Amino acid sequence: SALALWQRFRTLSIEKYKQIYARLGVHFDVYSGESQIGEGMSRAIQMLTDTGLLIEHEGAKLVDLTEHKLGKALMQKSDGTTLYLTRDIGAAIERYEKYNFDKIIYVVSSQQDHHLKQLFKTVELLGLPYADRFEHVNYGLVNGMSTRRGTVVLLEDVLHESKEKMHDVMRANEAKYRGVADPDHIADILGMSAIVIQDMAARRIKNYAFDWSRILNFEGDTGPYLQYAHARLCSLERKAHVKVNPDADVSLLTEEVTCDIINQISLYPDILAASIKSLEPCTVVQYILKLSHSISSAWETIKVCGEADDVAEARLLMYWSARTVIGNALTLLGLEPVEAM
């Protein structure tokens, strides 16, 4: 039957999603959608009726939100068919009853800003006790892609191309390439880093045009640059003639550049708090890019090797702290920090 065929396609699609998400280090506990919404829809219609919010117009049923500058929200067509808004209300009711959530975040493109404003306002007018727990995290579009025009580039293809490009870059230095334990894995991580960082480097609401040259560019403020900064700091720790000493005499770090780096490192908790409040990954990305640039500026003058032990220990502790912050931030962004490349 048609329903069995649909179920088959859905199952196959989810299995493919899981494979791609796993490659990105992403895992979802539940895969659900409007087809899984049960009696929540009919309950939503009944609640709207009982509260007097639902009005009829030419056989259709709607909620008038014009006084809230949100127009009229259609809930049910004249033939009895429900719409996305009705199903979203039903889903919200069922999700609260199942998960008793503290907050429910809708990660949906900015094209649906109006729809979600209507949803949140309707839930509020229904008097649901959890109405203040809804939040919309919107994002811009990748211009130049259209399923109707056949110009969509699949994520799987982008990941593959990025990995191969990174492999080519790594092979250009044969000596270093031979020293990498698992070049295929490292190339995959660097390729994903390129994609994730370029996507998260700007505010999420901003649109951008899909451009292969931009995706595969490994110069400047990119994911591979951040991975290189982390790997170089790891190499420094391995090669240093002293070990990381938490009790090192940091009063020896008197240079302007070291003071600047220490100050930047100290800001990490505030950066995380700001990112959580705004739900903007770019806050973290821009922070570690700036920190990595500062480390690069200090690299030639603030040396560890060849210095007296007390000075070396103080500088190594600073570099170790920076490496820890960069590594933690990359992990937070869903990326695996590389230790050699």
What do you see in this structure?
By secondary structure, the protein is mostly helical. Helix content is 55%, strand content 8%. A three-stranded antiparallel sheet has the order 1-2-3. A two-stranded parallel sheet has the order 4-5. Strands 6-7 form a two-stranded parallel sheet. The longest helix has 24 residues, at 309-332. It starts with a helix and ends in a 9-residue tail after the last helix. The mean pLDDT is 91.
> Can you summarize the main beta sheet?
3 strands, antiparallel
As a whole number of angstroms, the C-alpha radius of gyration is 26 Å
**Percent of residues in β-strands:** 5-15%
The neighbouring-strand order within the major sheet is 1-2-3
> What distance lies between the first and last C-alpha atoms, to the nearest angstrom?
53 Å
Helix content: 40-55%
Structural class: mainly alpha
Nearest-integer average pLDDT: 91
User: Count of helical segments?
Assistant: 13
Number of strands: 7
- Give the ordered list of helices and strands: HHEEEHEHEEHHHEHHHHHH
Shape: elongated
Residue stretches low in confidence (pLDDT < 50, at least 5 long) are: none
Quick summary of this structure?
The chain has 341 residues and is mainly α.
Write the layout of secondary structure elements.
Elements: H1 2-23, H2 40-50, E1 54-57, E2 60-64, E3 72-76, H3 84-99, E4 104-107, H4 113-125, E5 134-137, E6 142-143, H5 155-171, H6 174-179, H7 183-200, E7 208-209, H8 212-215, H9 223-239, H10 256-266, H11 268-278, H12 282-298, H13 309-332
Parallel strand pairs: 4-5, 6-7
Antiparallel strand pairs: 1-2, 2-3
